[in-house]
Amino acid sequence: MSVNSRYIKMLILPILGLTLLLQALIIPSAVYAADGPSITIKTDLGYNGRIKASKWNPVKITLTSDTDVSGDIVIQNTDNYMGSASIVQHVELTKNTAKEVIVGIPGVVYDKNRNQIRFYKDSVKEGKYIPFSSGKSYIEGVPENGAIIGVLSDDPDTMIFMNVLRGGGYDLNIVKMQAAGIPEDPMLLDGLDVLVINRFASDTLSKTQISAISGWVKSGGTMVLAGGAGYPKTAAAFADLSPVQYEGTFSVSSLPELASLGGKPLNLEGDFTLSNAQPLEDSEVLYRAENKPLIVSRQIEQGNVLYAAYDLTMAPISSWNGHPKVWSHLLKNDLPLNNQNRMFPDNQLNNLGYILNYFPSLKMPGFSGLVWMLMIYVVVVAPVLYWILRKVDRREWAWWIIPLIAIIASATVYTVGSSDKTKELAHTLNILELNGRGSSTTTSATAFFTPSSGDYTLEFPKNTHIRLQRESGLLGSSGVDNSFIEVGSQETKVDLLNMPQWSLAKMWAQQTDNRQVGQLNVTLSLNDQGNVEGKVINETTSDLTKVVLVVGAKVYELGDIAKNKQSDILTTTSGKNLNLMGGNIGSLLYPYTNTNNGNNFNRERELLMNYVPYTSWYEKGSYILAWSNDPILTYTHEGKAISSNQLNLWAQPVMIDLIQSGTINIPFGYISPNMTQVNAGMWNQDPNGMINMSQGVATFEYELPKLEKDAVYEELTLRGTNVGQNTEFKIWNEKKLDWEVVVWQSNGYTINTNVEQYAMNGKMLRLTVSAKDQTSFTLPDLRLKGKVKP
Questions:
Q1: 86-93, strands of its sheet edge to edge
Q2: In CATH, what class is 662-788?
Q3: Is the torsion defined by CA of 269, 275, 276, 278 positive or negative?
Q4: How far is it, in rounded angstroms, from Cα 501 to Cα 451?
Q5: Which residues on neighbouring strands pair with residue 441, listed in sequence order?
Q6: pLDDT digits (tens, 9 = 90+) for 738-778
Q7: Which residues cross the membrane (predicted)?
Q8: What are the 10-residue block averages of pLDDT along the chain, 790 residues in total?
């Protein structure tokens, strides 16, 4: 053996031994069970391979073992985006029997470099890691930002006509779903924007699947029930959600209401069968056919169910070129346009995480106090100590007295600084969006503070889905993934291992169960001057503070309203002007100041600035905001309560009675237009409402308020404050089924005859704008006047 070889061995063997030792110390759980069972794995991601960005999505994992074994299946996410916690679920595997496990995962990018799936015999903490004998032990998938429309039907082409909308600027995907693929957890339907059930026997679904769909609808999902003569089969499992009571069938030879909505002639080529139904009391008939319900809507807590009286797959409607526009209108709240000004949920959640840094129960020592400590230390160590030692002729004692004083001073500073950091603390933000009927959805973000290093176990309510981020502490880093989340029917458990001292674990908690928190009973009207009058009664479960009413561009501060108390809005109640051209309600109500007093409302201001503007009810322009501090999200540490500071934002859209003394006066700015179709190479909408568009055509709509049966509009005025250069605006005439050019005058464009021809059964106005070249413009404001027929 050569000298070089001996030296190489002398170097390699210690390095190899050290490497093995470090591996055993750092990754103690990665122990391969060579004599363990042989387990195969197969994964099916999302909804036929599609997942929704920022939402919870299902992944089905199929495991088969050659022997009986129990353990934890673990999805280890190594990407730090929105947290790198591992998702854990316990499974019992029976010999040679396939076991399906469905786990909820966030909608982020998945590939073999970002995640791993592992099996640990017994448990992830104490068991042995058993590698899979075959199959991919990771997830692959890229999330969608557009709408996902799930379809349950015996016809694979159901809703395929919606793909035409992609050419009009819509971002959507149609997903054919199988009954077996419907999750049993409502949260795992979170990635669907719409679920269409047409000519499908819904009662063939399991009870837990039916319950999951119902829970998903109640928490904000949109479901369409259709099928014509086959409607009883479609709605069999959802009688409690259906907007109508089925009563048989009838036939029509024309559907002018549908033709008007689709903007294209519709020839039924003979008799066409529709289902005949009686709308339920809490439903709204949107469109009729021969005075019978054609399209009916019903709000179910936070969600919506639509009834269609015809089979969506039946010719000639299924291939009619106006059909996509019909459903783009009916589903307008669920179908985003490309480049639409909106914030994705992850951005909203990240903003909430940022606001959690304003931890009110964790305070830095006062600057003046630290300055005084430093001055005292300098004075004691320098002149005072020198004078004393000189007086007693012991100046050599300085070698041990000065370090001793430094230790005492450091301990004093540490004691002062850590006085509020000696126990577990929680800081939670909750946003409650009330539906005005007693329930609300809740978005929660919480930060858990660790006073010392070690392992922590947190218990959340059952079926709570958690995203988690760990932040570095005073004496260590949280960069290594040592977090495990297990969602259960009894509780959701979060294990935080090796947390450094004085560190934070930020968590975003989501549940499908709506809270029964009451509502704000609001009675509002616009007088003949366009001013708001009325009252607000607090019928919620909490005392509310700093209540504000927002109507259009006006913000009315109503003060504090205790439970079962009332606040009146009078003609003398002053309102602040909210500048819609770049203004923000957060900076209006809580302006930045150079004093500590102004900064006490950092959390409120940041919530209003970074969360509220991207909600659907904010865009409608009429709502109430309020605050409370009572506990909404509660969780424990090893079964013990945590000292928690909670800030709750309450929000509820409001309706205004627009008829006073028999007259209708809807002022400019009350009805906001919505873009519904864009055929242009480039377009985007700035937060201030300015639209930037290249050559092309855009369609937009004004959804009109619901009026009394005999109320009619008599005057319609469009005000174009900035109509752009080389643009042409047109308004849809329902009677003529054609577009009419809008000729702008100095005072706008007014129609005061045959207004009903443009109001489309009193439900909406539809306009287009054509740009000859690249331009910028704002959508016109709308004013309506009318009266109630005697």
A1: 129-130, 115-121, 69-77, 86-93, 483-486, 491-499, 454-461, 636-637, 640-641
A2: mainly beta
A3: negative
A4: 6
A5: 433
A6: 999 999 998 899 999 999 899 887 788 999 999 999 999 99
A7: 369-388, 397-417
A8: 37 38 39 70 94 92 96 83 77 95 91 92 91 94 92 94 90 92 93 96 96 95 95 96 96 93 91 96 93 96 96 94 94 80 56 84 58 61 67 70 71 60 86 91 92 93 90 54 86 92 89 89 79 91 94 86 92 66 73 65 89 75 92 92 93 85 81 86 78 92 81 91 92 90 91 90 90 93 87
Alpha carbon of residue 633 to chain centroid: 17
Return all residues near 236 (Cβ < 8 A) that are at least 6 apart: 201, 202, 203
> H or E stretch including 242?
none
Neighbours of 754 (CB within 10 A): 11
Looking at residue 13, its pLDDT comes to 40
Q: Which of 332, 277, 333 is nearest to 307 (CA)?
A: 277
* 39-130 CATH pick, 3.30.70, 2.60.40, 1.10.10, 2.30.30: 2.60.40
Give the amino acid at 101. V
Contacts of 678 (CB under 8 A, 6+ apart): 168, 169, 337, 338, 693, 696, 697, 698, 699
pLDDT digits (tens, 9 = 90+) for 282-330: 999 999 999 999 999 999 999 999 999 999 999 999 999 999 999 999 9
Integer angstrom CA distances of residue 726 from 169, 465, 696, 766, 774: 22, 51, 11, 20, 9
CB 654, CB 624: distance < 8 Å:
yes
What is the value of pTM for the model shown?
Answer: 0.83
Q: Could you identify the residue written with the tokens 């920022």?
A: 54
Task: Look at phi and psi of residue 396 and say left if phi exceeds 0, alpha if psi is from -120 to 50, else beta.
Answer: alpha
DSSP class of residue 380 equals I
Q: Is 345 exposed, middle or buried (0-12, 13-18, 19+ CB in 10 A)?
A: buried
Residues whose CB falls within 8 Å of the CB of residue 450, separated by 6 or more in sequence, listed in order? 424, 456, 473, 496, 499, 500, 501, 502, 503, 504, 505
List the alpha helices (DSSP H) in 56-185: none
Task: Look up residue 170 and give its DSSP letter.
Answer: B
DSSP three-state, residue 333 = coil
Domain range list for the chain = 1-30, 39-130, 147-330, 367-417, 518-635+642-653, 662-788
| Burial (CB count within 10 angstroms: exposed 0-12, middle 13-18, buried 19+), residue 680 | middle
User: What is the CATH code for 147-330?
Assistant: 3.40.50.880
And the tokens for 141? 């998938």
Residues 6+ apart with CB under 8 A from 711: 659, 664, 762, 786, 787, 788, 789
